[in-house]
Write a structure and sequence with these properties.
By secondary structure, the chain is α+β, with helices and mostly antiparallel strands. The chain has two domains: 231 residues, Rossmann fold (3-Layer(aba) Sandwich); 101 residues, no CATH class. 24% of the residues lie in helices and 35% in strands. The chain is built from nine helices and 20 strands. The protein has a six-stranded mixed sheet, with helices on both faces. A five-stranded antiparallel sheet has the order 13-12-11-14-20. It has a five-stranded antiparallel sheet with strand order 15-19-16-17-18, with no helix packed on it. Bound molecules: adenosine-5'-triphosphate.
């Protein structure tokens, strides 16, 4: 339903010019929820702005349902937009805010009030129409902004950091609700966030951006299991990323030999060792490390290990019953099934 082909946006001119988007290709299917992720400045908002018609591309095309949008103004594209600061109209009540897009399209008063009631039910704020916007909590305002964006039945809903301002607990709850809601409505969604947890919980497919280009696209599980590069691995929060020389079933690393899965590509590579693949045993066997900080996350514990000889630290994950004491000596070994061989040497992700 949405096709971006070869989309380029440049800001500035001369030697200071830089591409906010660099020949980006992206397809979104009807009913798909796609989340664009990436560090600050990677081009996420610019991508949304191109689709919305708020930013003219310097090259390439944006098509909606096969039609080139170059000459189509913002309000005729049939896309709904919800931005981070949700920009509700403070002088209007909740109903006035939700009805905004319907009013612009000349809907009758009767139609407006029926649709407003329907949307407020949908977002879990039944009967909130007469309430003042200023008297709502952050989460409630977010729901009103969502109801306003959905009211005109956009063919594509675009969300820019939709839950950015809210505290983590509320965000985690809302993101699950949003996914359920979009699934029931069959809404096609293009969302932008820098929060990977949010993206992975919301999306059917994630797109990771770096410097105006797509670094990886895939289902949350695909990207999580097989990051395409050291950049993506680090962006996802993996710290055990080291240069390696792979030969046969083993890789030589700063931590000593690490087993790799069958059929891994050989040569100068980068290795990702997922924390679950770091095994702790007797200090007499394996790589000798001292246990550093421990972070308790539900039933799992993230443990930082400091290898002897000043080598880079290792992140391990273990269950509550196996967690070693801080300062204890342990012997570390690695499990091949949690090792991923990434592309070669220069992409450190910094
Ligand atoms: N109007 C503009 N004029 C000049 N440069 C711009 C403009 N808009 C964006 N840029 C630059 O383009 C690049 C991409 O910006 P963009 O806002 O798309 O990134 P982002 O990934 O959305 O970042 P953030 O997560 O911080 O919102 C950045 O280097 C930014 O400084």
């Amino acid at each position: 339903m949405l096709t971006l082909s070869d989309v380029t946006v440049r800001f500035g001119s001369g030697p200071g010019a830089r591409s906010a988007l660099d020949a980006v290709d992206l397809e979104i299917a009807e009913h798909e929820i796609v989340c664009v992720l990436g560090p600050s400045g990677s081009g996420k908002s610019t991508l949304l702005r191109v689709v919305a018609g708020l930013q003219r591309p310097d090259g390439g095309r944006a098509l909606l349902d096969g039609a080139d949008q170059a000459a189509v103004p913002v309000h005729r594209r049939g896309v709904g937009l919800m931005f981070q600061d949700h920009q509700l109209f403070p002088q209007r009540d909740v109903a006035g805010n939700v009805a905004f897009g319907l009013r612009m399209r000349g809907a009758s008063r009767g139609e407006q009030s029926a649709r407003v009631a329907e949307l407020l039910d949908l977002v879990g704020l039944p009967g909130a129409g007469p309430r003042a916007v200023a008297a709502l909590s952050g989460g409630e305002q977010q729901r009103v902004a969502l109801a306003r964006a959905l009211a005109p039945r956009p063919r594509l809903l675009m969300l820019d950091e939709p839950l950015g301002q809210l505290d983590r607990g509320l965000r985690e709850r809302l993101v699950v609700e949003l996914r359920g809601l979009f699934g029931r409505l069959g809404t096609t969604v293009l969302a932008v966030t820098h929060d990977q947890g949010e993206a992975f919980a919301l999306a059917d497919r994630v797109v990771v951006m770096r410097d105006g280009r797509i670094a990886q696209t895939g289902t949350p599980l695909e990207v999580w299991q097989r990051p395409a590069s050291a950049f993506v691995a680090r962006f996802l929060g993996f710290d055990n990323v080291v240069p390696a020389t792979v030969k046969g079933a083993w890789a030589a690393t700063v931590w000593g030999p690490v087993p790799v899965p069958d059929g891994s590509p050989e040569g100068e590579r980068t290795l990702l060792v997922r924390p679950a693949g770091v095994r702790l045993g007797d200090p007499a066997g394996g790589l000798r490390c001292t246990v550093g900080a421990r972070a308790f996350r539900g039933g799992r514990v993230a443990v930082t290990l400091r290898p002897d000889g000043g080598r880079p630290p290792i992140e391990a994950e273990c269950g509550l019953r196996e967690v070693p004491d801080e300062g204890a000596a342990v012997g570390v070994s690695f499990a091949a099934e949690d090792v991923v061989v990434l592309a070669g040497g220069d992409d450190t992700g910094d």
